[in-house]
Amino acid sequence: MIGELTGRGGHDAAPKPNNTTELRQAIDVIGTTARELGYDPFTTEFEIVPPHTMHEIASYLLPSRHSHWTFGMGYEQQKTMYDYGVSEIYEVVVNTNPAQAYLLDSNPLVYNKLVAAHVLGHTDFFKHNPAFADTNRAMVISAGLHADRIRQYRFDHGEREVEEFIDAVMSVQWLVDKVRPERPSPQEYMADGQRRYEERLSATGYRLTAYDDLFELGEPKRTKPTSGGAPFPYGDEHDIFWLIANFSPKPLEPWQKDVMDMMRDEAVYFTPQAATKILNEGWATYAHVQILRKLDEKGLLTGQEALDWIDLHAGVINPRRDFLQPYFLGYRMFENLARIHKGDPHPTGRKTYKDWQGNEFDESKYAGRDEYDPFWIRATIASDTEFLRNYLPPYLIEELAGELAPDYDGFEDDEADSPPLSPEEIDDYKKEQLLRLINDGQPYIHIPTGAGDYRGNRELCLKHAWDERGDLDAPLIERALGAVQFLWGRPVHLETMRDGETVIVICKSNGDIITKKVSKPRS
Amino acid sequence: MALGGPEGRPFYTAVDQGNWDLHRKGETDRARHKDKIKDILKANLPGSIAGDDLITGDGSGTYRVRVDKGKVEIPTFRFKRGQQDGMPGGAGLTPGIDWYEVDLTYDEIVGLMFDDLGLPYLEPKDEGAIEAKDVQWTDRRRRGPWANFDKKASAKANITRNARQGNPAKIGNWQDEDLRFKAYEPVIVPDTNAVLIDMMDVSGSMGIEERYIVRAVTLYEVMCLRRKYKNVEVAFITYHTEAKEATEKEFFTKGESGGTTVSSGLELALDWIEGGRYPPSKWNIYPLLFSDGLNWTEDNQRCAQMTSQLLSHANLFCYGEIRSAMRHIPLEFAQYYDATRLMGAFSKIIDPKFIKAILHGRDDIGPTIRAFLPGDTREGREGRV
Fold it and tell me: Looking at chain A from residue 113 to 142, which residues have their Cβ under 8 Å from any Cβ of chain B?
């Protein structure tokens, strides 16, 4: 998500219509204070909106985005949770320059003060964190143009037909290259591939055996490519979305290709946010705490406000049962590393601890060092995985795990009684949490070299690189594979593992799904 | 107060509160999402409501229909859930399919079902159309023809008036106001009892879709009867080589294998009627027979005979032959199949109370109902089927 603050639902403060002038003045002060503390956010446009609009924006993620029933479903879910007092969204921030932020009109002023401070934390993060360096800062305009074109296509080609197509594209939405999403034009790509192939031929004197990479379904091993040229794709391809959009043999109609291009732009725009959820929310929460404390120091909060914001803050960082609750984990990590940076001792007085390698780690050595400067971190660490790996020491895991809601994985709820976790338990726990973050929780799927023209028949092969996170959800991926087949127009294969065995799931042209077991394990 | 930070740039360019009332994109897309769910609900109805008491119940409860969550969500490449819980033998999630359940009222479910099947609209009850069945001479009026003069009532009125006026309480001093005349009131006595005897063969050919068809037709007929009769009972008979009474749930879920002797079902029904359970003197009888048409050929004669017997007791006997496997056979060849099927045996029975229909699939339900119950649908009355 693009940065939303959620708290426990059904807060008791009676909704008061926000006085826009009051809020404007408050934001002015908050902005000044933020600058004083070293924050450097994008210029931010604040919009005060009613709950139904908030639900809408939180679901569509971009205010100008195209229509789709899945957004309607998201909107419905949010509205229901709000109506039942289960959860409330207090703000939505969009990564653009100038940034756009939405505040709830039914919130009391003090809540919106905290939220505004939190928002500036986000826009500072968007501006400085390397994961966002190449994002489209005019995305709201782009999304609006996308929506216009899609609307036109719905008119020209039929509502259901366009909806059906978008449904299929959504199945592959996240199969983009998250590291390096830029791609050349299709012509450049093919020319590039051919050139490399020929260079290698002349350099090595023998043909590439790229086809060795392909699994054979009991067929004789091929040693020569069936077509005379370079394998397609000429290297392992991780951007399945891009490959399908540009090379589908269906072939895609021009409007279909355009829809895929537009949706890919939007997906690529959002991937950094999925990868930095804990960093981003932690940073913004840490920011709102610093800013509001400063305001209090300066005497700019009333006595009641000084209590109210703490209350709201407590609700926001409440982890409930989820260790990876981003506001909780992110905030506590920033709080801890900021303490180390300042040279403050740990509340228990402890000076050193064992790090993950088992070595003694002397905190005091890191006081004043860049690597523990929160501002340096937000400008350097580009993923949650990296953040957790480097800034979540064993003792912190133990401390935080003890604060989770009772009966979570056997940890006792009463800290005083809980037995200290063994180093192995802590290690396992960290591994388990890190696993959940890998690739933003998604499986690694790519197209091996040459697998875009399997059997010389322009069939497409996908390979799931199985890891400790386990097997794929069989019925679901069968349907997703059907969507890929719909977009590719020809048979599509997926190699994966199931219950310890390598299997290949095939979606034929008529939509039938068959699953074959591969007798020999793939090298 | 000057805006802006160190470089003079503002931290905000606007703090606005506009009117968002007309922005309803969420609502439109939500409506589209709801439509999709409705379509899935309809598709799930045949399988979901198999066991419920839709026909025999009083329509007050709610009916649970399952929606395959997967059909409402976009499928993506995702891990199987629950495999990281690590607890051996722990309560794992049901692998694969996720359902959520929707509770529908009787009206909603029937609405969906009829919508799905394109069933004809049930005309609203027309009170005036029910004719008076009887008259009661219980009314007494002060005016009337002398032929209706009621001596007793008049005398009573006379004595009462005399007593009231302080005179001796006996007949005398006749006044006009003492006169009483008998008058009648038309009494609409609805036909009180009707029984629908639903008979169905439970061999293998009656699958989920076929039973859904049977349920829809039965339900429709029951609803029509309920508008005419005060008390409508439904009794179910399942038969294969033997016949047995069944509950609604059993009727729509149980299956047997083996051969079929349709006459066994008819015999049981006759037994109930002639044996005193549903005497025609007290009950209006509506047999409803469904089969796939395949029967022991020797039995066909007996069936025809029993059918005639039933017809002598019944108000209306409807027979639906469900030939789902024969959808693709052109109509001209269908007549050759008639001979071998029950329909052939029935073809010799001509009786206005005996209505036969062949159903190849759910598309035939509408015309079938219009044929069975012409009086209840506009199209039926106009002679369109």
Answer: 120
